[in-house]
Amino acid sequence: MSNIPVQQPGHSEPGVTDSENSIELKNVRGLSQAQIVRKRFFRHRGALVAMIVLVFVIVLAFTSVGTVIGDFKTGGWWAYTWNIAVAIENGGRPTLSLFPFAIGNHPFGQDEVGRDIFAVVMRGTQQSLMIMVIVGAIATTIGTVVGAISGFYRGWPDSVLMRFTDVIITIPVIVIGAVLGRRFGDFGAPILAIILGLVLWTGMARLVRGEFLSLREREFVDAARVAGARDRRIIFRHILPNAVGVIIVNATLLMAAAILIETGLSFLGYGVQAPDTSLGKIISENQAAFGTRPWLFWWPGLFIITIALCVNFIGDGMRDAFDPRQRRMPSDRLLRRAKLGEVDPGLSAAVTRRARS
Amino acid sequence: MATFVTRRLIASIFIFLAATYLMYNLVALSGDPLADLRDSTAPNKLQLIEARTVLLNLDVPPFLRYFIWIGGVLGLRGTGFFDLGVTVQNQPVNVLLSQAIGSTLQLVTIAAVLAIILGLVVGITTALRQYSGYDYGVTFLAFLFFSLPIFWVAVLLKQYVAIGFNDFLRDPQIAWWVIAIFAVVSGVIWASVIPGAPRRKLLTFAIAAGSAAAVLTYMQLTDWFSYPHIGIVGVAISAVGIAFGVTAISTGLKRRTALRASLIVAGVGIALYYPFMLGFSFYLAPWSIALLALVTIGVSFGIGWFTGGNDPAPVARTAAITGFLVAAVIALDRYMSVWDDYTQSSRINGRPIATIGSQTPGLEGSVWVLGVDTFTHLLLPTIALVLISFAGYTRYSRASLLEVMNQDYIRTARAKGLTERTVVMRHAFRNALIPIATIVAFDVGSIIGGAVITERVFGWTGMGALFQNGLDKVDPNPVMAFFLVTGSLAIIFNLIADLVYAGLDPRIRVA
Question: I want to staple A11 with a disulfide (CB 3.0 to 4.6 A). Which of A16, A227, B121, B453 is the partner?
Fold first, then answer.
């Protein structure tokens, strides 16, 4: 890499550089926005671990017991399924043990009828994951479109859309979810997810609107307009890419919220209905059995927490990646090493910042 | 200002009316209100259907039936103002609502206040100790609490906190290794919160671990869990400690007038201990306890004001906070003094922590015994609600304070030579509160939503039950009563958020 000084905006002479900026630039020179974001994301260790765990959970859930979408069915490598009871072994207790390590026939145990809890939990995880993705996609799309239109056009479209958003936001999510879930819960998990998506977009719309309100006053928008771009092109090609950080971060957090809302609704009885199952429904059905069969309760809860925790950590990593101000600081040990001269480019920017503050 | 409030209020009312219209129709269309009668085998089935149709105006389609309902609420139907109609069983909803509203609002208010205070304190301390072990630990815990389903936590609390603690109370013996673990954990926490060189951290650790071990051993030796008490010595120590602590945070210990005023207030509190415990506390009604709290704050404020010299306001503030906290400690001791009566009463049978309901039916006793009963019932649902919402506040207040601490005016304040307390409490904390105020107000709705689930787990017959029973029977009237309360709360809090925002931040004009 050559070290030709780059002329900075605001400095008249080439060769005069803002020290902090030049280090920042060295760090990201020649990289596209997506590459920079990816690089920063992978530096967030929590997010990376969360991502690996989440992928593992997804693969485990969908391959182990197979899945059913409408008439389309796939088998899995697990011997049992979630809806067929088999003879109870070992009093239904989990056969999973760590010392000595053994999986056994029913690692998570069986319920009182004899269904394999591993298969039930995997099916519940599938449903919860699917609901999470559908809710995230629908709510993000609606929220972005509504926010973009009201932020970009202002005036009466803004008033109408934002008053409508206010109306929806007044009703607590659990309440409107329960009312709609009672009506549409019988139609299966995907329909429930679509309904939830139609309710959860309000926060996203407000955020995107705020982002658009400030971005539409920027010079690049004027430039595009002078160049003759139409509104649609300005919105989608110029402003939206600049707002994508806010959108992605909130979409992740929305998905984590969606999982908890779905489990809450299923717990109240307004979510996924029998014969199908979801993680919240398993807990709801078995909470009375906690004294006698605690594994019916531990495993689904553990999977809810794992998924929600992973998605939250990924969201945090995304926020760090898109917002350079929230960068993680190096530890004291790394700082000392950096001062001793073993400068690592990723570090020095943070060092200068920490020294300044 | 007045124009702004009026305009916002009118807009809010219209939004709220639209929301009730939407909600009413959604509930009315969510199922068939006659389903149970259609399946029934009663010989007078048709008359029953006819009767219910007349009772609930089911012959009118929902989008028009709403106007019958809203007419009742606004008092246009000649049945009096705020008539919420009747349920499917022909019970007046007003009566059901007045029974349900107390317990739910109590739960939600206490949980919200505790979550805000805890979230602010933890968020601010983590921001001040950024990138310490404490910060990382709290960050991880906050993410974990975020991700917990509230009903799952609630069942765990029932199993381990309530049943476990009740079992423990039968024979309150603390094993020595439990004492050791508690001591080490408290030492580690304090050592990671309080900054300093390794040597000083070690000292912090030793002091914290030692005092934790001493307190637990004392409790063990005096059978404290069977006969909890603070006593005059404990009250005196805490009162002086509170006086110093509050002064240090509120005005700084250098301000001698403030310290003097707080110590006077603490002294008055200690002097009133025996008259209160043995005398007039027996003649108090619930409302007079609240009145007493107000009088305490007022008197303490007065003491601060008249001893405060030429700038009395901060001194009076310090004294008022001290007075309130000292009074709270004494009241706590008073509640503890009836603990034995409470646990031994025939209704409780030595298992005080309740898992079901909002009060023990048929329990009789003084105000203090009933108060303890309310506490033991509130304990678990409050913990569940606080755990979940406080995690969010921690993150917000940490982020907000970090943002402020990097501002230029903080550097200026430090460069002027102000003490760290002044910089943090006066310059940073006040500005950090601005965004937090908005978020907290918006969040009230979600706490109420969480309360629906919590009430269900703990078997409370509050507003959550009103909502659920109504929804199960496709009966809009009780559901709308629930929504009228929660929705108006949400709107009021949003309005308050706007005003607080304008009050805290002079850059925002509301005219």
Answer: A16
Count of C-beta atoms within a 10 Å radius of residue B231:
13
B455 vs A contacts (CB less than 8 Å): none
pLDDT interval class at A337 (50, 70, 90): low
Q: How confident is the model at residue B160 (pLDDT cuts 50, 70, 90)?
A: confident
Q: Is the pLDDT of residue A74 over 50?
A: yes
Interface test mutation site (partner B, options A57, A169, A170, A283, max chain B beta carbons within 10 A)? A170
Which helix (H) or strand (E) element contains residue A69?
Answer: strand A68-69
Burial of A124 (0-12, 13-18, 19+ CB in 10 A): buried
Whether B449 has a pLDDT exceeding 90, the answer reads no
Taking CA atoms, B257 is separated from A253, B268, B318, B418, B424, in Å, by 49, 16, 10, 20, 22
> Do the chains contact at B27 and A179, CB–CB below 8 Å?
yes
**Cβ-defined contact of A308 to B146 (cutoff 8 Å):** yes
pLDDT at A174: 84
Distance from B342 to chain A by nearest Cα, in Å? 27
Closest partner CB to A170 (pick from B26, B479, B490): B490
CA distance B355 to B160: 11
Three-state secondary-structure class, residue B353:
coil
Which residues in chain B are contacts of A167 at CB distance < 8 A?
Answer: 15, 18-19, 22
Q: Choosing among A173, A174, A354, A357, which should be mutated to test the B contact, i.e. which has the most B CBs within 10 A?
A: A174
| Backbone φ, ψ for residue B501 (5° rounding) | -55, -50
Please, is B472 exposed, middle or buried when counting C-beta atoms within 10 Å of its C-beta (0-12, 13-18, 19+)?
Answer: middle
- The answer to whether A331 contacts B31, with C-beta atoms less than 8 Å apart, is no
Instruction: Return d(Cα B161, Cα B380) in angstroms, integer.
Output: 8
Q: Using the beta-carbon criterion (under 8 Å), do A180 and B452 form an inter-chain contact?
A: no
Average pLDDT over residues A109-121: 80
Answer yes or no: is pLDDT of B141 > 60: yes
Neighbours of A300 (CB within 10 A): 30
d(CA A248, CA A319): 9
pLDDT digits (tens, 9 = 90+) for A199-244: 899 989 988 998 898 888 889 999 999 999 999 999 988 898 888 8
Q: How far is B133 from chain A (nearest CA, A)?
A: 11
Sequence-separated (6 or more) residues with CB below 8 Å from residue B296: B323, B324, B327
- Planar angle of CA B123, B127, B133, nearest 5 degrees: 95
The Cα-based distances of B450 to B112, B175, B412, B444 in angstroms read 11, 37, 43, 10
Residue A206 to residue A204: CA distance in whole angstroms: 5
ipTM: 0.80
Query: Which of A175, A179, A180 is nearest residue B449 as measured by Cβ atoms?
Result: A175
Q: Which of A44, A54, A175, A313 to mutate to test the interface with B (most CBs of B within 10 A)?
A: A175
Residues of B in contact with A270 (CB under 8 A): 471
At A69, give phi and psi (nearest 5°): -125, 105
Higher pLDDT pick, B367 / A53: A53
> Per the CB < 8 Å rule, is A301 touching B149?
yes
Structure tokens at A217: 């006053």
Tokens of B90: 């022909």
> Which pLDDT score is estimated for B511?
47
